[in-house]
């Protein structure tokens, strides 16, 4: 019997997994497999990466961490499929179809851009569970919508930025101006303004739909950060996938604070030379969401429907890996209070600017 979870708030503390892939741009589709499954319904699980692919030090790498945890702990085979630069919807449809046809279950699309493709492919494989991260627009009895309250984590980042800023000017860089990324901007701006009403927030988007390259080009992130630094920003928060690494580089080189996203970017090997300037990161438990979905299928009880990861269950939150962050008692106290107030519903965080 397929278990349908209409609305659920789920949180899980993901195992810390070292991610050492080197950041890279668009890649050709490829698949890799691991050792065979020893037990369970899921013989092989697959993920199809979003723009930027594995090695983005952020969103895709977090999904990979969940896949690796499932391989190691659940003993399932795994498959991965990379995006291609400038790909069409038909490319995504073909990629998902191939993964499902080869017997992978579940097949998880990393990012909202997979929604149209999953809508087409899922009905053709009714016995396969399809997961999609960051999207609720496409639904079916065999689709799991793995979503997060990004605005809540971003609010905490705004509080931290306002407390850490010496100039009173902070920056937000979004990869592409789409509703999902505007949730990050909305929460961040609200957190800044609630903490310091006189603060100035500079917002920059790297590209506009249908151009999604803003998630994949570090040079664009670097240029945007330099522009904000020139205008007085001394704390910059990026929600831009691989392009965010460029923003972090520029901010760190200027001796200012960067705030990462999705993964704990302080601990990302590819960003190690800039880590001293990564104040914190807005964490999304993408790894936990991927692992949980694979586990549900392996146990023969596929979780489907909307599965939401919120601040109240640590599905989102702020990383505190940087020792300098831990020394900022006033900042930490403000973040902790904001977190408690959001969970207690004393603060309602906006989802649009």
Record field, number of beta strands: 13
pLDDT below 50 for ≥5 consecutive residues: which ranges?
Answer: 1-40
Largest sheet: 7 strands, parallel
- Order of SSEs: EEHEHEHEEHEHEHEHEEHEEHH
DSSP strand content? 15-25%
Cα shape: globular
Average pLDDT reading: 89
Instruction: Tell me the Rg in angstroms.
Output: 19 Å
The tally of helices reads: 10
**Which class of secondary structure composition applies to the elements?**
alpha/beta
What percent of residues adopt helix (DSSP H or I)?
25-40%
Question: Numbering strands along the chain, what is their spatial order in the largest sheet?
Answer: 1-12-6-5-4-2-3
Q: For the terminal residues, how far apart are their CA atoms?
A: 42 Å
Summarize the model shown:
The chain has helices at residues 59-74, 89-101, 115-121, 150-164, 179-195, 218-230, 243-253, 286-298, 323-326, 329-343, and strands at residues 3-9, 44-48, 77-81, 107-109, 130-133, 143-148, 169-176, 200-207, 235-239, 257-262, 278-284, 303-309, 316-318.
């Amino acid at each position: 019997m397929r278990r349908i979870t209409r609305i659920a708030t789920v949180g899980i503390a993901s195992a810390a997994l070292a991610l050492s892939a080197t950041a890279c741009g668009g890649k050709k589709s490829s698949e890799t497999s691991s050792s065979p499954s020893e037990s369970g319904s899921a013989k092989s699980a697959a993920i199809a990466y979003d723009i930027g692919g594995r090695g983005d030090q952020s969103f895709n790498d977090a999904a990979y961490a969940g896949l690796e945890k499932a391989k190691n702990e659940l003993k399932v085979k795994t498959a991965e499929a990379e995006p291609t630069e400038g790909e069409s919807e038909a490319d995504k449809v073909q990629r998902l179809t191939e993964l499902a046809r080869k017997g992978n279950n579940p097949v998880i699309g990393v990012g909202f851009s997979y929604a149209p493709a999953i809508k087409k492919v899922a009905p053709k494989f009714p016995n396969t569970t399809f997961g999609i991260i960051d999207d609720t627009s496409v639904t079916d009895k065999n689709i799991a919508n793995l979503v997060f309250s990004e605005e809540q984590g971003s609010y905490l980042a705004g509080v931290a930025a306002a407390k850490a800023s010496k100039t009173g000017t902070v920056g937000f860089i979004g990869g592409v101006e789409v509703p999902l990324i505007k949730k990050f901007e909305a929460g961040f701006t609200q957190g800044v303004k609630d903490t310091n009403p006189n603060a100035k927030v500079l917002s920059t988007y790297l590209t506009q739909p249908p151009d999604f390259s803003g998630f994949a080009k570090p040079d664009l992130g670097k240029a945007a950060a330099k522009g904000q630094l020139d205008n007085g920003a001394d704390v910059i928060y990026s929600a831009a996938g691989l392009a965010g690494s460029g923003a972090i580089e520029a901010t760190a080189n200027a001796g200012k604070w960067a705030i990462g996203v999705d993964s704990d970017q302080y601990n990302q090997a590819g960003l190690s030379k800039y880590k001293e300037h990564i104040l914190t990161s807005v964490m999304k438990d993408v790894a936990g969401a991927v692992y949980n979905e694979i586990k549900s299928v392996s146990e023969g009880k596929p979780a489907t429907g909307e599965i939401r990861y919120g601040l109240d269950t640590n599905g989102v939150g702020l990383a505190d890996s940087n020792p300098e962050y831990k020394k900022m008692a006033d900042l930490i106290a403000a973040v902790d209070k904001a977190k408690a107030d959001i969970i207690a519903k004393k603060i309602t965080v906006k989802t649009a600017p």
